[in-house]
Amino acid sequence: MSDSDAATGGELDAELAALLDIERFDPPAKFRERALLKDPAVYERAASDPQAWWASQAEELDWFQHWTRVLDDDDPPFYKWFTGGTINVSYNCLDRHVIAGHGDRVAFHWRGEEGQERDITYAELLGEVERFASALKGLGVGKGDVVGIYLPMIPEVVVAMLACARIGAPHNVVFGGFSAEAVRERMEFSEAKVLITVDGAARKGKTAPVKDRVDEVIGDLATLEKIVVVRSKGTACQMREGRDVYYEDILAEAEPTCPAEPLDAEHPLFILYTSGSTAKPKGILHTTGGYLTGVSATHRYVFDLRAGGDPDPDVYWCAADVGWVTGHSYIVYGPLCNGATSVMWEGAPDYPHKGIWWELIERYGVTILYCAPTAIRACIKWGAEWPNKHNLDSLRLLGSVGEPINPKAWLWYHKVIGAERCPIVDTWWQTETGAIMITPLPGITATKPGSATRAFPGVSADVLDESSGEPVQQGQGLLVLTHPWPSMLRTLYKEEERFIETYFQRFGSETYLVGDAARRDGDGYLWVIGRIDDVVNVSGHRLSTAEVESAIVAHAEVAEAAVIGQHDEDTGQAIVAFVTLQGDIQGDESTIEGIRETVSGRIGKFARPKRVIWTEDLPKTRSGKIMRRLLRDIAEGRALGDVTTLRDPVVMQQLQDQVSQARAQEE
Ligand code: WTA
Questions:
Q1: At the fourth CATH level, which superfamily is domain 87-269?
Q2: How far is the CA of 435 from the centre of ligand 1 (A)?
Q3: Measured from the CA of 432, which atom of ligand 1 is nearest?
Q4: What pLDDT is recorded for position 4?
Q5: What's 426-450 look like in SS3?
């Protein structure tokens, strides 16, 4: 580091330290003046009649047939919204904007890793979606058939999702960072009929052979009839006669029009697999009318969106991946439904250089940036000189999602990126909730760094005492949602019992158990602390410890493994694996690499353990249950609590010694 860099860093640290004393940040007057919502009475209005509030949001959408009932709550927890109504998500995201004369508006400024650019207008997107929807029908995909999508951040992923929505075929998108093995598993669970994938995907200057990897594992899945391959990188791939077709070929031959199918408000829109407490991922099922109502209303008000018709329209950028729920709701469905102009970036935040995000913000005049705290922490590490090279004056609002944002990252985001003029919306929600649930409203809510503040209008959140189940007025407890909301998951695909057990057993069928602990402060602000189940959050990626354990034991030399999440400066949490090897095999660096490779192949690179700790045995209760709490204490270097229930207390001492040795080596 040069002297001048050191000086800048030091000054910045001092400025940030001064900000630490500020407890609350009011919405800047200039922002507030023009905000869509600025009257706090909206909260009371929504709370006094949540159904009327959500119905008024649903009125913003185009329905083929109006609903007859807003909320059917006859059979909790199986809630239905806007029953009797028919609607189509792709019609609301595309056709209605084109019909209103906005066909020339840019839907996405797409930017490829090597600097390629493609502006896609609403009219162009509609044209391609209609063709691809016809092509899917031509492949035999009908209403209700599940379509798998395993694509990188290229425009075709949006086309594929909307084409499915157009014909009522629920999609099942798998994040491109998951391994082909994970794709196979998800296709199998969801009984997908078609899989849409790609020849190759950009990975920081290299091309990953996606179709080849899929071929290695997909075998003969009983239900999978067709694989559609997008020619993105021009890599050669083996096409199996009768099963595989190129996207471009079927598009060229397809009927150019395909009217949007009027679908029941409760028709399934998508399944998205996410991690739960066991090794088997949960298929979160979302439906049509309620989901679109939730994502469009939250996208409009949380991001204070001004779409193209406005004299000063926004350029919005959600820097997530479409393969996660954030991408579904806030890259695709929310923004398109609201007629927004967005940026879509194919690559990583540090390729071709560590300032690429800021370069893109300047290039496209981005006004709203929505990203994960992990990315902000990485930027802090790389240094303020990267954003400082660019003009970020266009920014007016910043968002955060996916994990708790630590005050230091919040303040850096506020100061270095937002130049103290942009409100920050720290949005708490989940794959299950479909849309943002706890968040500031940027023109109304005073923010406190690290708190997601309060529930969105029409949403009821509470903190309950772990043992009594009574609301905690001030202090820590379990976060719950106490009133149904339109974008809530409807069930776990083909696992109804698990749906009830996971979310609606602990406090009854009318109280949704979130799975996070939270604290309510004296002002009623909510601070989400983290998961209470065996789910870890690595860089905003949700993983189950059981899933990683079962991947590790697939390694030939491993006898047993226990995985925990450990606090990590960069990634929020990091995966630590305690591993017992078979017989008297001695583990070394190459064994660790082998274990990491196995996890990479089974789940994906992002799930690889950061640390592997060898152990002759794992701490277990007398009934044989692994005591993860103790492992967490050891890994975090905390004093050990009660170990009397352990089968073999000596194990703990050995482990503690091993961990301190490993620490000493790392330092
Ligand atoms: C965590 C991502 C604190 C939380 C949209 C939740 C957060 C899980 C926040 C859901 C936030 C998400 N503050 N924690 N603003 N946002 N989380 O399903 O533990 O991938 O339960 O959805 O991420 O992760 P998921």
A1: ANL, N-terminal domain (3.40.50.12780)
A2: 11
A3: 18
A4: 41
A5: EEECCCCCCCCCECCCCCCCCECCC
pLDDT of 1 above 60: no
For residue 643, what pLDDT is reported?
67
**pTM of this structure:** 0.94
Q: Which residue out of 328, 542, 544, 547 has the highest number of ligand 1 atoms within 8 Å of its CB and is therefore the one to mutate?
A: 542
Phi, psi for 658 (deg, rounded to 5): -65, -40
Could you read off the pLDDT of 352-401 as tens digits, one per residue?
Answer: 999 999 999 999 999 999 999 999 999 999 999 999 999 999 999 999 99
Work out the end-to-end distance of the chain between its first and last CA atoms, rounded to an integer number of angstroms: 21
Residue 95 tokens, joined: 């056709």
Q: Where are the domains of the chain?
A: 87-269, 535-666
Q: How many CB atoms lie within 10 A of CB 479?
A: 25
Q: In terms of CATH architecture, what is 535-666? A: 2-Layer Sandwich (3.30)
Distance, in Å, from the CA atom of 52 to the CA atom of 610, rounded to the nearest integer, reads 49
Please, which residues have CB within 8 angstroms of residue 527's CB and are 6 or more apart in sequence?
A: 404, 450, 451, 452, 518, 519, 520, 521
Nearest partner of 397 among 417, 381, 372, judged by Cα: 417
> At which residue do the structure tokens 């300032």 appear?
355
For residue 7, pLDDT over 60 is answered with no
The CA R_g of the chain, rounded to the nearest whole Å, is: 25
Q: Mean pLDDT, to the nearest integer, of 193-219?
A: 96
Q: Is 334 helix (H, G, I), strand (E, B) or coil?
A: helix
Among positive and negative, which fits the CA dihedral 537, 541, 543, 548? negative
pLDDT tens-digit profile of 170-196? 999 999 999 999 999 999 999 999 999
Q: How far is CA 46 from CA 73, 441, 564, 596, 647, in A?
A: 18, 14, 40, 49, 54
User: How many angstroms is it from 646 CA to the middle of ligand 1?
Assistant: 33
What is the dihedral angle through the alpha carbons of 105, 394, 392, 201, rounded to the nearest 10 degrees?
-20
Separation of alpha carbons 198 and 185, rounded Å: 18
**How crowded is the C-beta side of 173, counted as CA atoms within 13 Å?**
29
At which residue do the structure tokens 């609590």 appear? Answer: 641
Q: How far apart are CA 70 and CA 656, in angstroms?
A: 57
Query: Among 31, 32, 20, 30, which Cα is nearest to 449's?
Result: 20
Q: Are 195 and 218 within 8 A, CB to CB?
A: yes
Ligand 1 pocket by C-beta < 6 Å: which residues? 274, 324-326, 401-404, 426-431, 452, 515-516, 528, 530-531, 537, 542
Q: Read off the pLDDT of residues 73-100 as tens digits, 9 standing for 90 and up.
A: 999 999 999 999 999 999 999 999 999 9
